[in-house]
Design a protein that fits this description.
2 domains; 10-stranded mixed beta sheet
Length: about 325
Amino acid sequence: MPVTLAGQLVVAISSRALFDFEEENLLFESSDDRAYMRLQLERLDAPAQPGVAFSLVRKLLAFNDAPLAPPEEIAPEARAAALAPRRRVEVVILSRNDPVSGMRVFRSCQKYGLPIQRGVFTRGGSPWRYLKPLAANLFLSANEADVRSALDAGVPAARVLPNAARASEAHPHEVRIAFDGDAVLFSDEAEQVFQSAGLDAFQAHERERAASPLPAGPFKPLLEALHRLQREGTAQMRLRTALVTARSAPAHERAVRTLMGWNIEVDEAMFLGGLAKGEFLREFEPDFFFDDQTGHVEGAAPHVPAGHVAAGVANL
């Protein structure tokens, strides 16, 4: 049978989002790609430092090592099959790096014990077009043009802030992911009302439509895939999600009812009514936070790994 990634959570990630290549990237952006290649080759045996999305990737991959249930709960006759490694998550490097520099990326993965086998290296070309053959559930990159192209193609994508804080190590057996609501999990329908008519009109609009589900936003497919992973669960790894939104009562109700209508549960919901999100995220300690507003992303970045979702009216 042909190899397939069907049924897996597929994360495509650029080398610069996974590892700290900021020093090397200065050469890459100067258009001197041969100098960049030489530098990467010189450092072939020097593992790159973890990047902003490293913790998210490492923890997601750990779902592949865990049985579905604690061994004592598995019938003896089924134990061997149940305890065999099962791939629930696939991570693929999707990078503007050249193939030579890709050798250092893979060696760095090996050094940190990341079982990443697949990669596409385009030597400066846009790699987003390979997301569809991968059936990717998420694309993380430091390149804004690639992220926008991925979103236009219907793939959940975010531009990582390479200098954002690294994830806390306080939850080694739990993947924690935080999402903004409007223009991320939900459409920007309500955000358009806010932008054009102000807060009072927004609150009235949402109060009147409290029982009407919001249309899906670009990250609904990712939330669904994560929810499947969360429901499946393992003895060693868990997943915890949070909705972190500027909404407040009474506009909170439509957001909650929308998630209920999707049969998706989030573990925490923060309706902050315009309060800065950064300090709340610092307490939640996510492995990654997604938001469509650059101000919220930049405010979160000193505290947690963060990415900008260039979707909705705020990003026209």
